[in-house]
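Posting for a labmate who doesn't have an account.
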Amino acid sequence: MFSLPLDLLQAGTGGDVILDPGQGGTVYISGTDLRKFIEDPDGGNITYQLVSGHLPPGTNLNAKTGRITGRSPDVDATYTFTIRATDHHGKYADGSFSIDIRERDQCLSHPCQHGGSCTDGFNGFNCTCGQDYGGSLCETNCPTNPFGIANSKKTIPDAQISAHFTLSSQNAADGRLQSSSGWIGAGTGSWLQVDLGEMKKVYTVATQGYRSSSYYTLTYTVQYSTDGNNFKYIEDSTGGHKAFAGSVNYDTVVKHYLTPPVSARFVRFLPLSWHSGGKPGLRVEIYGC
């Protein structure tokens, strides 16, 4: 007898047999009572062969058992085919089948978090996230998600942190938030820059001073760029260069939320003023998605 895996069978209407291959959608085999397809009255072995048409992609016919197994694509499609069952005397019978695949709506489980909207797609879905959220499921709170400059994470490698007009032998890569030292600029015109490695949406910047009571930045501006050559300033409500308040001492972390967030690969911190008697010291982190 032609058979199918019992764990995939479901009861249908009008004599139909329904195959449920799982996440890929539901498969229907209509118009034939598979239990009466063919039997060998002698009880001998039967071999099965696809003689015309096509099975759904991802499924296969077992020549010895007659079982069709596999997982079909998540698309609306119809496949018509004929299977021949041959006994050990060489006698055979043919059966024709039509399999209708109905695409599963991937958004029915409401996978997008924090109010994100779901769009069903081919074998998957896409989430459109609301303000301040990102990630494939809108699971990430972007303003509090660090890109990994901080000394505790170091997702951003040293080679992607650079500086201009640095004091003495100070190292730009020491300008990580919570590092044991920090970066120090020589004065006006100094800057500390981070290459995020790819385009990101930047929501928040955070700074500390150099780990010394004399070297911390009081105010600074922020530039951003998509290519590392052409930079724009973060602007204030009047369209001017926004001046961000820095540290009130060398160790306090001060964060600023950008309104609106900006899309960038390169972010540059430019000290405007610093503690009297010292130089502009910085340790930084950037947050976003």
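Reply:
Got it, the structure tokens are right above this. The chain is about 0% helix and 45% strand.
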